[in-house]
């Protein structure tokens, strides 16, 4: 009589979690999570090591990534990136914008894509000091009455779109997660932000942050969007728990950054807002300087939130981006060091050094080390930032291209594409192809 097959899904949670912490790579994590629901729950994506997103050519359909744990670079062929510039990386999705200021969310690892409303005249007026208007589907900067060749000369080029419209867009949740996905946009030069609900809103809504200086970054933390201006002042601009149809901003004057803290980045870790920065010491006699990496945290639920110094984050590893504001932390897994910060680029790198390098900071010691270059820079650009792969499809067949003529859907529509398949060419690189 044949023996019954063991029920692997009934393994103890503690044992599954112990196994999950010993998985050596992202590929192992993906295989483990695909077995069944209990196995998937034992290894949340917070422990799934992120990849470094490298700059890409909008005339190409190839996007490159770097895996720190495996010390390899690989490329994906993504036709949807051609003719677009990146304006964000959030929740494992890329945010792309074309010359018409139309916005697309793309999961580079599953091929799923989502359309968001394009920029309109209201967004254009709030985003730039210059007057921008749309003619025949494209945007132009106007100065008085111009036409013909003069108008063509003032056409906003693709590489200029971020400096005129959406500088960066941050999501509250993956658009296929089965819950509300709010997109919050940092405008090019404005104290206002713009937001929309994927699959619900037909246009962006502007919101005054009540900050005195232009907004530099947006962070989603504790179900709230925080707008942070160029001086480090913070305002709560949107809360998922709010009942008002139009949210209002609430500045947090108690959260002014410590004096002298430079290169500030913000992220949520263990339910609290964290700030990472560099405290610089200058030697006036020699014109040289040194800096020490420092971390602060606060609880937004406190009556008067305040920054407190953090000297040890335990088993956590922090990943901080210089270009996009998407930064995050996760429990350390194999090949990632604990109590360490991985910066996407050196904080004080040589602008003439045409190679991509990581900076790794020891939190306890406050010291940093710039690693050897792993890739030549594309067009002399910095790495765009970290992206944590989201390999799992949520609402199947739900997300599609934004349609200006009809926005009656109550939830975002997803358009699926063939998933990229990994093909190992050699020990030093991994390439992907569509299947």
Structure classification: mainly beta
How many angstroms separate the termini?
A: 42 Å
Tally of distinct domains: 1
Number of strands: 31
Poorly predicted ranges (pLDDT <50, ≥5 residues)?
395-401, 403-410, 418-435
Radius of gyration over C-alpha positions, nearest whole angstrom: 22 Å
Largest sheet, order of strands side by side?
29-1-2-3-31-30
Classify the helix fraction into a percent range.
Answer: under 10%
Main beta-sheet strand count, sense and barrel state: 6 strands, mixed
Shape: globular
Region (Disordered): 403-435
InterPro entries: F-box_BR-signaling, KIB1-4_b-propeller
Protein name: KIB1-4 beta-propeller domain-containing protein
Domain KIB1-4 beta-propeller: 65-345
Give a quick set of tags describing it.
37% strand; 6-stranded mixed sheet; 31 strands; mainly beta; 5 helices; KIB1-4_b-propeller; 435 residues
Written description of the protein model:
The radius of gyration is 22 Å and the shape is globular. It starts with 12 loop residues before the first helix and ends with a strand. It is mostly beta strands and 435 residues long. A hairpin with a 2-residue loop joins strand 14 (215-221) and strand 15. The protein has five helices and 31 strands. The longest helix is centred in the N-terminal third of the chain and has 8 residues, at 13-20.
């Amino acid at each position: 009589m044949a023996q019954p097959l063991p029920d692997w899904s009934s393994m103890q949670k503690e044992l599954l979690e112990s196994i999950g912490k010993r998985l050596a790579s992202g590929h192992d994590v993906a295989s483990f999570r695909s077995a069944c629901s209990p196995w998937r729950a034992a290894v949340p994506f917070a422990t799934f090591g992120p990849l470094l997103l490298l700059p890409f050519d909008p005339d190409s359909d190839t996007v490159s990534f770097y895996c720190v744990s495996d010390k390899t670079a690989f490329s994906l062929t993504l036709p949807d990136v051609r003719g677009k510039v990146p304006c964000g990386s959030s929740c494992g999705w890329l945010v792309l914008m074309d010359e018409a200021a139309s916005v697309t969310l793309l999961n580079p690892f599953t091929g799923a894509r989502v359309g968001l409303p394009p920029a309109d005249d209201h967004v254009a007026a709030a985003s730039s000091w210059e007057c921008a208007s749309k003619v025949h589907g494209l945007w132009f900067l106007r100065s008085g009455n111009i036409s013909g060749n003069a108008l063509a000369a003032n056409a906003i080029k693709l590489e200029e779109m971020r400096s005129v419209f959406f500088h960066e867009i941050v999501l509250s949740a993956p658009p296929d997660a089965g819950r509300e996905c709010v997109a919050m946009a940092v405008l090019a030069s404005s104290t206002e932000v713009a937001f929309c609900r994927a699959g619900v809103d037909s246009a962006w809504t502007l919101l005054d942050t009540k900050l005195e200086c232009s907004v530099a970054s947006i962070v989603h933390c504790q179900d709230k969007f925080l707008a942070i201006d160029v001086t480090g002042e913070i305002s709560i601009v949107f809360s998922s728990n709010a009942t008002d149809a139009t949210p209002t901003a609430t500045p947090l004057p108690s959260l002014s950054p410590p004096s002298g803290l430079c290169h500030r980045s913000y992220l949520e870790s263990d339910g609290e807002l964290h700030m990472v920065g560099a405290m610089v010491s200058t030697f006036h006699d020699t014109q040289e300087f040194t800096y020490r990496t420092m971390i602060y945290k606060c609880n937004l639920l406190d009556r008067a939130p305040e920054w407190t110094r953090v000297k040890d984050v335990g088993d956590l590893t922090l990943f901080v981006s210089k270009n996009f504001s998407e930064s995050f932390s996760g429990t350390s897994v194999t090949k990632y060091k604990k109590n360490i910060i991985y910066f996407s680029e050196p904080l004080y790198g040589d602008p003439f050094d045409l190679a991509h390098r990581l900076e790794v900071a020891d939190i306890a010691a406050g010291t940093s080390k710039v690693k050897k270059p792993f890739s030549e820079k594309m067009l002399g650009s910095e790495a765009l930032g970290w992206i944590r792969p989201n390999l799992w499809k949520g609402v199947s067949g739900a997300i599609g291209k934004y349609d200006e003529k009809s926005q009656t859907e109550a939830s975002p529509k997803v358009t699926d594409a063939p998933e990229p398949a990994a093909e190992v060419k050699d020990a030093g690189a991994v390439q992907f192809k569509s299947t």
